[in-house]
Design goal:
heterodimer, B: 4-stranded antiparallel β-sheet, 6 helices, disordered N terminus
Chain lengths: 790, 242
């Protein structure tokens, strides 16, 4: 017991004596554990909320739409093998003027089922009540729309659907599982104020839509184990005669897909980043404990001479490493729990669950903690082995001067070309190549992390510029409820403020090639369109060739096609037959899966005449208010988009979302740079304190001694810069790949600003560490060195 | 400060009422109690006395490493006491050569480079090779400390100390960690090169035998000088044994 206590005491005193080094390493470990804990906790919180919400609302497994299906066919749908329940509704959209908003909102009105309890995709009422089924003028609104647009219970709103005005009073605020994440169709970002969703009694919507006894959307609940592809096929077959659009499974539902992507990103974050921290921490433990064993070889020998076993005598070093790991794990767990809760605040802005409580993911924390302690122990193993193998007799002899030799650099740098101080720096690097290597790698890793995460801002700017100012050049776009004859464009041109208009036809398609498939939108543009073009890698417009389609690079990559291949096309909207088309070019298009075709050829394909589904416009900025007021009254127009609003929303949402995480990355990376530079310098100081004090006695000034002490780490910090930048570029590349989604492909753009921010943070962290250690040169005890041997 | 006016009998250091008190947890320790001493330019002094008698403290204050609690020290008439840290560094750099008990060579530099380390920052140094030649190490120029014996390492330290032609050579137990044969070799080198560059030499030692090579031997006890013995005939280190 006594022996244990005195070794425990030694452990405690070592921890206290080395507290700043210990804390610097523990900080790195804590960063790693915190990231894992935070990511998995956030993931768990989202998954729990999602599971609860989906269960309560009976979120459907399969979704489909038709132009107008008779309710009598619902029975047929219910008889499909594996289908448990069918919910058929009417869903229509139109524009809606909202007091206080310049641009009209898009209003989607969905019929409420007769029996809300039995329905799928139920809504959860947050405030107010459900509409009185007998009244045609009451509706429940999407809560997020009400909050963003400033709509209150009791307000009256009007939308125009199919030429008929539909006015209702808002009696309740609700959240549905279909709109947990509500991206606007143009930007993939939430634009809550302009995205109204309303639930009204069936009779009211039926009347407005002119769909008495019918439905146009349907959702299905499947039994566990049911074959989704088989159900989709059966649904399409049944709905085909009624203008059915291709049905899709839950995984393709927009809100669900976004949520899934976010959950995947959290997994990536929780698994990819922490190892970087742990590896660097292990390397530092290796250096610090190694130095400690070297400095205490006499004590180790003494313990062994007094009868301690090899392992006993070495155990303080192993336990010191374990304590560092444990300290980091506990700190990281606390920080991770706090971050997990903080990140929930942010998620509440994007993911609208009725309840989103923070969670703590104990298994994630446990695994990270075990990994942390394991990494710290592993880092100490070489040093501990040295302590175990140390013979008591050797340990008690005074150490010979450390043996050095002339290395490669000496041969390269002849005689008098460098001063002796610099030569000391070079020789130390050559004598401890592993340490120099680990230090360089650690510093490079920190710079890589800094630069690798800075791409986001540059990439977003480039993406916005490319998407909204080069490929698309319209200021406003309008969508028609249904395809219209092309002369509808002339009607749009007459609207106030509009000085240019080009037609566009967008159809949902399923594209197949080489056994792979993707659902996307096929955009038909005029051959000489100016307001939207497909651009090549050099930013030049790509001309259409005959019946050929132009695919976005993301879509081409997904399908494995190159120009010259043929793709097979199924039209989702409408009843055009499947067809094979040649791919004529690839567009550099960062908005994910997109396909373009000449409008005339698309119309020939659809075989329904000269049709358009919307228009892209140039509207005089000062005439915008009049333009918006005019389109609210035109039944033809059911959607309106403004580029300026979209871009502003993009920036607001993305930058807000990224600011927080990028701040963390900068902090994490700076922690690595600081931890590595500080520990390396402290070790150098402990090894060289006597040399430096000797030099001070011999008349060297403090700054000359500081140069010898810090020159080494500063030299390594400089060597690490090109490595770090290279690594940062690689990291950015892999992050771009990991975070790119179907809807949003990020380009890799590193701006001079990205480099500047990264290098500044890096140099600041290294500089701070150097300053803290350099300060100790001022406090060297000159008298002590005269009488002591090392 | 004058470097060259070498009138025999010039006073290098003038020490008056020098007192050093260390305040420790256990109370005050009087390391020096009002020491008076004049050190003549070019002479060799050996400071003898038991541990804690104050000889090293005096050496440290004369070397600009420590500060007096009271009293004055002048170097060629200029007060050392009261100089700033930076001025003391400049003083050491320009005028003082040190030799330590444990050699204190930089292990990562060869013999030649250890000497060059100092000559690079000195005003009119001799070539490192010449300094090492004076201590008989011309054939060890490119050896690292780890490749040299203790006596050889200390001779490198002597070369390092005198290569800048210091006016003052302060040696704290220069033979304290050497066997007698190596010790004699080191002292031989020391005495010879000190004479060659005309350095005033002060050697702190436990070893009374070393007193034989001095012009004067200063005996210390309890922080004070108990007696000063002038050697009418200095002996060469080679004539000693201990």
């Amino acid at each position: 017991m006594v022996t244990l206590r005195s070794l425990d005491l030694k452990l405690l005193r070592d921890l206290l004596r080395l507290k700043w080094q210990v804390l610097a390493i523990a900080l790195l470990i804590a960063c790693g554990v915190a990231v894992t804990t935070m990511a998995y906790s956030a993931q768990k919180a989202l998954e729990d909320a999602q599971a609860r919400f989906y269960e309560v609302t009976r979120f459907a497994d399969v979704f489909a739409a038709a132009r107008s299906g008779p309710l009598s066919r619902v029975e047929d749908l219910a008889r499909i093998d594996g289908v448990l329940a069918v919910d058929a509704r009417i869903s229509e959209s139109g524009l809606m003027s909202v007091p206080g908003l310049a641009r009209p909102a898009i209003a989607r009105v969905i019929s409420l089922p007769r029996d809300e309890q039995a329905a799928l995709n139920r809504i959860v009422l947050i405030r107010g009540r459900l509409p009185d089924p007998s009244r045609l003028d009451e509706a429940v609104a999407l809560k997020t729309f009400m909050d963003a647009a400033g709509v209150s219970l009791g307000d009256q709103l009007t939308t125009v659907i199919g030429g008929r005005a539909l006015t209702f009073r808002i009696v309740g605020a609700a959240l549905p599982a279909e709109y947990v994440f509500t991206p606007s169709p143009e930007s993939f970002m939430p634009d809550d104020a302009h995205q109204g969703v309303f639930w009204a009694p069936r009779a009211a919507v039926e009347r407005a839509a002119g769909l008495g006894g019918g439905f146009n959307t349907v959702s299905l609940d499947l039994a566990a184990g049911a074959s989704v592809p088989a159900v989709l096929q059966a649904v399409d077959r049944i709905l085909a005669p009624y203008g059915g659009r291709l049905s899709y499974a839950r995984k393709d539902q927009v809100s669900h897909a976004f949520l899934t992507a976010e959950l995947r990103e959290l997994s990536i974050m929780g698994a990819v980043l922490p190892p970087v921290f742990l590896i660097v921490a292990a390397a530092l433990v290796h250096l610090v404990v190694g130095r400690l064993v070297d400095a205490e070889r006499e004590q180790i020998g003494l313990l062994k001479a007094f009868g301690y076993g090899d392992l006993e005598a070495a155990s303080p070093y192993l336990r010191l490493a374990g304590a560092i790991g444990l300290l980091g794990a506990v700190g990281g767990g606390l920080a991770g729990g706090w971050l997990g809760a903080a990140v929930m605040e942010q998620y509440r802005e994007y993911f609208r669950f009725p309840v989103l409580d923070p969670a703590f993911h104990w298994p994630g924390f446990a695994v990270a903690s075990v990994a942390s302690v394991g990494a710290a122990l592993a880092g100490s193993l070489l040093a501990v082995r040295r302590a175990v193998r140390l013979s008591p007799a050797v340990a008690m002899q005074p150490p010979r001067p450390a043996s050095y030799r002339q290395g490669l650099l000496d041969r390269l740098v002849p005689g008098k070309t460098i001063d002796q101080s610099s030569r000391m720096i070079v020789r130390n690097l050559e004598r401890f190549p592993l340490r120099a290597g680990l230090t360089t790698l650690g510093l490079a890793a920190s710079l890589s992390l800094l630069l690798g995460t800075q791409f986001v801002f540059g990439s977003l700017d480039y993406l916005i510029d490319q998407a909204y100012y080069r490929a698309q050049r319209w200021s406003d776009a309008v969508g028609f409820g249904e395809v219209r004859a092309s002369h509808a464009i002339s009607e749009v041109l007459r609207l106030p403020g509009v000085f240019a208009a080009e037609p566009v036809r967008v159809v949902g398609v399923q594209i197949r090639a080489k056994g792979r498939e993707a659902r996307t939108r096929l955009t038909g543009l005029e051959r000489d369109a100016q307001l939207q073009r497909a651009l090549d890698g050099q930013g030049r417009p790509i001309p259409f060739q005959g019946r050929g389609v132009i695919l976005s690079e993301a879509l081409a990559a997904r399908l494995g096609t190159v120009p010259g291949d043929r793709v097979s096309l199924d039209i989702v909207d409408g009843r055009a037959p499947s067809t094979d088309l040649p791919v004529t070019a690839l567009a550099e298009d960062y908005s994910g899966y997109a396909a373009y075709m000449a409008l005339d050829e698309l119309n020939r394909l659809m075989a329904d005449g000269d049709r358009v589904s919307g228009a892209q416009l140039l509207v005089k900025p000062d005439a915008r208010a009049g333009f918006y007021r005019a389109i609210e009254r035109i039944p033809l127009i059911v959607a309106a988009t403004s580029r300026d609003d979209t871009v502003a929303n993009w920036r607001k949402v993305m930058i807000e979302a990224l600011r927080v995480s990028l701040t963390f990355y900068v902090g994490f990376a700076a922690a690595i740079a600081f931890g590595v530079a500080y520990n390396t310098s402290r070790i150098a100081l402990s090894e060289r304190a006597r040399d430096l004090a000797t030099l001070r006695v011999l008349g060297f000034e403090r700054r000359e001694c500081a140069y010898i002490l810090l020159g080494e780490v500063l030299l390594l910090a400089i060597v690490a810069i090109p490595l770090g930048l290279l690594g940062g570029y690689g990291l950015a590349r892999s992050l771009v790949a990991a975070f790119s989604r179907e809807e949003l492909r990020l380009p890799l753009i590193l701006t001079p600003g990205s480099y500047a921010v990264s290098l500044t943070a890096y140099l600041a962290a290294v500089g701070l560490a150097a300053l803290l250690v350099g300060r100790r040169v001022w406090a060297l005890d000159l008298v002590a060195v005269l009488k002591t041997r090392e | 400060m004058p470097r060259t006016a070498s009138t025999p009998g010039d006073i290098a250091f003038s020490v008056r009422g020098l007192t050093k008190v260390y305040v420790t947890g256990a109370g005050e320790v009087h390391a020096l109690r009002g020491v008076d001493l004049d050190v003549r330019r070019g002479e060799t002094l050996v400071l003898l006395g038991p541990s804690g008698s104050g000889k090293s403290t005096l050496l440290n204050i004369l070397g600009g490493l420590d500060r007096a609690s009271a009293g004055t020290v002048t170097f060629h008439g200029e007060a050392l006491t009261g100089k700033t840290e930076r001025e003391l560094t400049a003083y050491r750099r320009a005028f003082v050569g040190f030799i330590f008990q444990f050699f204190n060579l930089v292990p990562s530099l060869t013999a030649r480079e250890n000497v060059a380390l100092i000559t690079e920052v000195s005003r009119a140094p001799m070539a490192p090779e010449a300094a090492l030649g004076m201590v008989g190490l011309s054939d060890r120029l490119d050896h690292f400390p780890a490749q040299l014996s203790g006596g050889q390492q200390q001779r490198v330290a002597v070369a390092r100390a005198i290569a800048k032609r210091p006016e003052i050579l302060l040696c704290d137990e220069p033979t304290g960690s050497l066997d007698s044969e190596s010790g004699v070799q080191v002292l031989n080198a020391l005495v010879e090169v000190a004479r060659e560059v005309g350095a005033t030499t002060m050697i702190v030692s436990h070893n009374a035998a070393i007193g034989a090579i001095a012009d004067r031997v200063i005996h210390f006890r309890d922080g004070a000088i108990t007696r000063i013995i002038e050697n009418p005939i200095k002996r060469a280190p080679g004539e000693m044994r201990w």
